[in-house]
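Data availability (excerpt). All sequences and predicted token strings are deposited with the supplementary files. A representative entry, Flagellar biosynthetic protein FliP, is shown inline so that the format can be inspected without opening the archive.
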Amino acid sequence: MDFLLLSQAASEVTAGTPEMFSDLAPPLQVAIMLGALSFAVAMLVSVTAFTRIIIVLSFVRRALSTQEIPPNQVMLGLSLFLTLFVMAPTFDKIHKNAVIPLMEAQANQEEGEKLEFGYLDGWKIASEELKTFMMANTRTSDLELFFELSETPPPSQRIDTPMKVAVPAFIISELKTAFIMGFCIYIPFLLIDLVISTILMALGMMMMPPVVVSTPCKLLLFVLVDGWQLISKALVASFA
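Structure token line:
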């Protein structure tokens, strides 16, 4: 809901300044719109909780040996709305401290007053809020790596980390965390595969693929322990 409010407010702000693109040819306007959508997707993957969530859910599906069940669309939808749930406090702050003041400044400018809060001010506040979330979920070793690679001295406070260091450090930190969680998820299902394989070999049924028997067992275990609830709880709780 908060993300929808943020999107609506942003669209209202941009709708209030159509003269910025009115002189461009329609193909250029379409190209700018597509570029903005691509940038939004890149932001979703790079500076939010989406990467960790989609990777962990993909590990769950592979551990269950269910191939394409749940479908990719369901996995993406669940990942997106879990991301919105995790990022809701950050989006609330962006909406309160950046979007609303920018809309009020635009309304005052239409009445003849001087613009006191511009787009750069809004972007600065929004980027600081996103950076706060990223720094809370980034390992110090990953930050040190990119400070070393960029030959940039680290600031006295983590919040002062430049975006060129914060974003890649956050991404590889998310990848590491997602793979650790995926490994922990794999272990119980791997044990089921080993037990089923041992039983089939003991019974002399070596020609039967173990996955034929182990998949229903894994699904039964996953349903009995309410696996999707546990996975969702673990994912949300894993973010600072």
